[in-house]
Structure of Beta sliding clamp:
Amino acid sequence: MIQFSINKNLFLQALNATKRAISSKNAIPILSTIKIEVNPNGITLTGSNGQISIENFISTSNQNAGLLITSVGSILLEASFFINIVSSLPDVNIDFKEIEQQQIVLTSGKSEITLKGKDVEHYPRIQEVAASKPLVLETKLLKSLISETAFAASTQESRPILTGVHLVLSQNKEFKAVATDSHRMSQRKLTLDKMTDDFDVVIPSKSLREFSAVFTDDIESVEVFLSNNQMLFRSENISFYTRLLEGNYPDTDRLLMNQFETEIIFKTQALRQAMERAYLISNATQNGTVKLEINSGLVSAHVNSPEVGKVNEEIDTEHLVGEDLFISFNPTYLIEALKALKSDTVRVQFVSPVRPFTLTPGDDSENFIQLITPVRTN
Amino acid sequence: MIQFSINKNLFLQALNATKRAISSKNAIPILSTIKIEVNPNGITLTGSNGQISIENFISTSNQNAGLLITSVGSILLEASFFINIVSSLPDVNIDFKEIEQQQIVLTSGKSEITLKGKDVEHYPRIQEVAASKPLVLETKLLKSLISETAFAASTQESRPILTGVHLVLSQNKEFKAVATDSHRMSQRKLTLDKMTDDFDVVIPSKSLREFSAVFTDDIESVEVFLSNNQMLFRSENISFYTRLLEGNYPDTDRLLMNQFETEIIFKTQALRQAMERAYLISNATQNGTVKLEINSGLVSAHVNSPEVGKVNEEIDTEHLVGEDLFISFNPTYLIEALKALKSDTVRVQFVSPVRPFTLTPGDDSENFIQLITPVRTN
């Protein structure tokens, strides 16, 4: 029967990170619990929603944990409820003691709370991923790659493969992440320092967003392991499992063009704010679009929603070459694309009013590219 | 046809304060608009939901407004939409121009937005309140009185009069505010510096909460005027009208007792945190209550929810006199009562397990008193 004492804040932090895999409204009731396994070396917290699983290890050797294990065992506790209770406790220290089968007492200061748990027997087993030959990635780099691509994945289940981000490692060191919902596409490339095995997988974009929330910036690097249908991201204390999406990802390389008719460089913020104003009016009508006019060296944006009103505005440019052009598109896609850009300026290249246009950072056109498909108007 | 230019931030601030009276889902569509009236001295913004009306005046003599009026007139504009547009504009200054009947153009920097408005003709008239012999109150004092009482008003429409706060001025200077939902009561008294006319009104607690949001802390005092069915709070630029509730407010004075069997002084925070833990467990069962035990000089709190768990905890006291007592109540009421208390300590006085108990600030027992009705258990 479990017995340990632990620092409240550290315990809470580990519980909250683990809870990111737990959905309170899961169709499988047992997945709303958190698994607490105590062994002589430390405590493993496990949460899972069937798609993502997180294991969080708190070691007895972690100074900040103040972890003292008197007796080992395991139990399931209702995750949200248990975390609320722990967070309400008065003292910096918590004593956790199983007093009879699946019944625990938390003592902290003069407060004593008894909770009912469940038997771990029915908790699903997390499929193992062979942890050999890891790909080691900087957490910061991986998170920035996620924030640059995952937003462009589809949220519609009509083509499930498009709800994922396509991660490809080729030539042992060329790493590429691509996402598209068929209206826009975002692709980030990077070259690894160390040679590693090639792979080609599609990871649900939701999993990647959770990854970014779970692996905080103080975790410098993660090891990445792959099995048939799962990917495992691992740091010193956290193992993050996600299932992979099955199916063939569309060939996005064929969408990239090498020539353009018009090229403009904008200040990223100025273009984004203009599009946000356009969106306020365009959003008031169904399928609202904004029209961009490039005419004799001047760029202007126009929305006309007969019911609501109009926007006309001139947008300053840093550089403009090529043909005049009128092109219509959904401003939401451009706003989200610009949010994903970290550079102060953005290079936009147009081929024609009916062909996707390209966005690249003003300061680096090679490694990060986005496409937006225009809307045909008459 | 209206034409003026104005500082964007000041305009936005006035629009947002006025919008507090405007509900976007009002059954009367015209009440989702904001009325903009421009006359040679300034601009009056008006919003109303039928219960509360706010008029906000921006004077041409206000330096921060940078207000330059070229042409006068009035128009109605969809409140939320208009405010979103104004807030998105790029420049510190906005030009507002009516180009044809009920059609305006906003120009700011290189952005030009055209919006459709409505004729002011159909906007309801705000009933006037004769502005003579005002009661002048410090805004801070009035807001603190609201935060100490309004939360205790009922949210149920079964007894509409209880959804209000009872404000009574008697003997020309004794001011009292009371609210009760029949489970708990909160009463704040204060003595005015200047003599004024007596009154006895019930104001919807919702109106008072909006009052607190609209009159920011930089507004030092407000004038209060009364008509048959309305109260008007007025500062230099803002007029805030609220309807009064009709009907007789119950006699709450008879609930106050002069004697007690047990008196305890707690640290406010310690008692509140203990109740918050109790609530986590009690809330998991229907009609969850906490039991407070005063036994041989020790005070402890207990919750037992057979399905979920138990709480037992000792609560430190600063002072304790009188009889032993077991009393059960809904911890939510005690938590909310303690939130309304600004003092570090709280004096709690009990008569019996079936009679309401009293809370007063540890440092001031005369002017602020709260009652909580216990729950009978067997």
